[in-house]
Automatic annotation (TrEMBL), chains A, B:
The protein's assembly and partners: Tetramer of two alpha and two beta chains.
Family annotation (NCBIfam families): PRK12391.1, trpB_rel
Domain of life: Bacteria
Primary role: The beta subunit is responsible for the synthesis of L-tryptophan from indole and L-serine.
Cellular component terms per the entry's GO annotation: cytoplasm
Protein name (database record): tryptophan synthase
Length: 459, 459
């Protein structure tokens, strides 16, 4: 039975796919943040227009600039595998396919947008990219993408991740980035967070807020973001476009497409092209976003206008959120600790085009370890969420006695997360879930200022 | 300028290449170890004959069993890159190509032989594979290769590496292996080594001796080795066979082929097929084996009959060696701390067909870090030795004002070696070199018992 579906280098997609062209509804537009004393310039005007415009338009396909495509060709197309050994061990009639992004130079899908962004920003005269990173996948990707364009890179890394994953910081520094643990004393946001809680584990919201403030104060520096925004989701569709061709070679079409859900770029990358293809062939394919119990923005959050950063500097967007002041427990899947879901994914979820599920940390590592042993690939803790959901689909298929084609994104490898797996092997993985009260506390200010809140009562 | 040369999956080589068919001399045969009271069974009778025979014969090509080839297809052919950014930064007229084995499931070339060995051993009824590992690349590969064949895996890991690289142990355990720090109290060899020096950093020689003793005591268990032996070198030629096709696509033929030199399987893998091709086209290609200053078996060792393991259980082979009791300083490139060079590589070196060079640890990391920044790939410390030599070739080419085509093997990634790079970034890399007296001490007993020693005076 064929286990691997490679594509030739010359089949790297020429276009990204813009799902806005095919949605049967409008995604609510962002709203500028209310002006506030001493606030730095806001985010949107900072985006290169050549990058921003196509991401809010209705053109179905957006050409990938040739220099970006040339970079992609260094490792793309990434392989699609059929997990035949895992199927055997689960004794399931389901066919489990995974698209593996861990063969990229940065070890995850994040480099797909990092290279694209670096290209657009460098062309617009930017000399320094500044960002926040949770697990470090994004920071790594951006630090690698800046070097070829001669740009500096400064990364605010969430403290809990920086300490749990010392190798990540080293890797970014090795690629020439300056890495700052967040909350830091370098920004007002950071100093305020430290004053409120000197032991704060940090959050991606805080790290991004620090990066925004830091970039605003520096010449020809720009804040860049690794997920959530329309243009980031757009860049990641290269994953699904390849997977479409590969599933065609395999002669199957997925009944369910699964992706881990941080802010949504990985999930969008694998699922949007299949959303288009499923419409075209009137297939009833399901799309499943998987989040951690510890940060349940889709399964327990609400669809409200909120900021994408902790300090409320960014424009407000309508999204499924736990509130921008929500700080998730420091689980190993740092990349899934973000408080909100991308506006496009949120709108699709609200319209019933996308499903969501949440998993406990211990179950995620159990499934990640089983997958590693069977398939020889250690999933990043984030990616292991998709593995857990795929395994559940496989078990259900066995119970139903029905074939089912499952496709999931293995967004990155977990070679820099082995401390987390060591915890798992030693039986030390902890499950922590926010209480209703905690979620209500960070949601309340949003509900009170949101005109549609009546339709979305607090949990 | 084209930077990457992929091969399609259906071009995974069908045959390994046996260099013995093309050597203009005989490689001296091994000699059984002299019998000794209480010594466990010796190594050779333990090898599956179907694996062993072709590795000592004169057939030029050995067919790769289809099940092994199917496994190879999961990630092979590996990419060949041209390091255009590094060329630019070095301002060199040299063309630098590298064959990258780090995209394999285990992260290095070691899996090429691990899968082949697992296949042959499982077919001959073996249920448990036992081995020693230095840096952990080999142990990782073997632990991953055993699972598909339903075999157990036990790994004795050199203590200094086990402590410097805790992630390696986790990775092996995650793939189901039992990992034992060596010297251990589980074997007589280990207990004796600990009695002699409770703080012994261990060595690959000791770890292998422990594994041999341990395997000999267990039912249907076999000791397996990750480098040095003819069959291991044979399996690795899949690297060079692919690189030949890829260099053809690039339209160039190397003036020099470079590989890091532990016991020799990586060096043989990249260079043997080019040795054949260079003969065929009467090219004066050079073949350069690169070792660390801390373990200079080729540049400062001698060509003598010696054991491949620390305790002198294995048959004796004629090789460049520092003596099987030599224990190298615990440098980060644990995979290059082995005391001897593979008999075939040694014979080629002795006959002037191969060159050798040694590098200091600090220079190696300086070059490894420069390569990482330029090319976006962090080399394993072992592989960084080849990078250092390639950079020197590039600099020489600039000084000579002459084009030169350089091909080197980047045998693995360094993502599990970031502690070592952190040391480098912090300026803490230490250079240690054995004294002549140290080398003489471990060589003397061999010289005294070797009839040809007169031709090879002590240093």
């Amino acid at each position: 039975m064929r286990q691997v579906f490679h594509l030739e280098t010359d089949r790297v997609p020429t276009h990204w796919y813009n799902v806005l062209a095919d949605l049967p509804f409008e995604v609510p537009p962002p709203r500028p943040a209310p002006p506030r004393e001493g606030r730095p310039r806001t985010l949107n005007p900072q985006l290169p227009l050549s990058m921003y415009r196509p991401s809010i338009g209705r053109s179905r396909f957006v050409e990938i600039p040739e220099p970006v495509r040339e970079e992609y060709r260094r490792w793309r197309p990434t392989p699609l595998y059929r997990a035949t050994r895992l199927e055997r061990e689960l004794d399931t009639p389901a066919h489990l396919y995974f698209k593996y992004e861990g063969t990229s130079p940065s070890g995850s899908h994040k480099i797909n947008t990092a290279l694209a962004q670096a290209y657009y920003y460098a062309r617009s005269g930017v000399k320094e990219m500044v960002t926040g990173t949770g697990a470090g996948q994004w920071g790594t990707a951006l630090s690698m993408a800046c070097h070829p364009y001669g740009m500096e890179c400064t990364v605010f890394m969430v403290r809990s991740s920086h300490r749990q994953k010392p190798y990540r910081g080293t890797l970014m520094r090795l690629h020439g980035a300056r890495v700052i643990e967040s909350p830091s004393t370098e920004t007002e946001v950071g100093r305020a967070a430290l004053a409120a809680d000197p032991d704060s584990p940090g959050s991606l919201g805080i790290a991004n807020a620090e990066a925004i403030e830091y970039a605003a104060r520096r010449d020809r520096a720009r804040f860049s973001i690794g997920s959530g925004e329309n243009h980031v989701l757009l860049h990641q569709t290269v994953i699904g476009e390849e997977a479409l061709l590969q599933m065609e070679t395999a002669g199957e079409f997925p009944d369910v497409v699964i992706g881990a859900m941080g802010a949504g770029s990985n999930f969008a990358g694998i699922s949007f092209p299949f959303y288009r293809a499923a419409r075209e062939r009137s297939a009833s394919t399901r799309f499943l976003a998987v989040e951690p119990d510890a940060c349940p923005k889709m399964t327990r959050g609400r669809y409200l206008m909120d900021h994408t950063d902790y300090s409320g500097v960014t424009p407000m967007v309508r999204m499924y959120t736990l509130g921008h002041t929500f700080t998730a427990y420091h689980i190993h899947a740092g990349g899934l600790r973000y408080h909100g879901a991308a506006p496009i994914v949120s709108a699709m979820y609200d319209n019933g085009l996308v499903e969501a599920a949440s998993y406990s940390q211990s179950r995620v590592f159990e499934c990640g370890a089983a997958f590693a042993r069977a398939e020889g690939v250690v999933p990043a803790p984030e990616s292991a969420h998709a593995v857990a959901a795929a395994i559940d689909e496989a078990v259900k298929a066995r119970e139903d006695g029905a074939e089912r084609v499952v496709l999931f994104s293995l967004s990155g490898h977990g070679l820099l997360d082995l401390t987390a797996y060591e915890s798992h092997l030693a039986g030390n993985t902890v499950d922590v879930v926010p209480t209703d009260e905690q979620i209500q506390a960070s949601l309340r200010p949003l509900v009170e200022s949101d005109e549609t809140a009546g339709a979305h009562p607090l949990p």
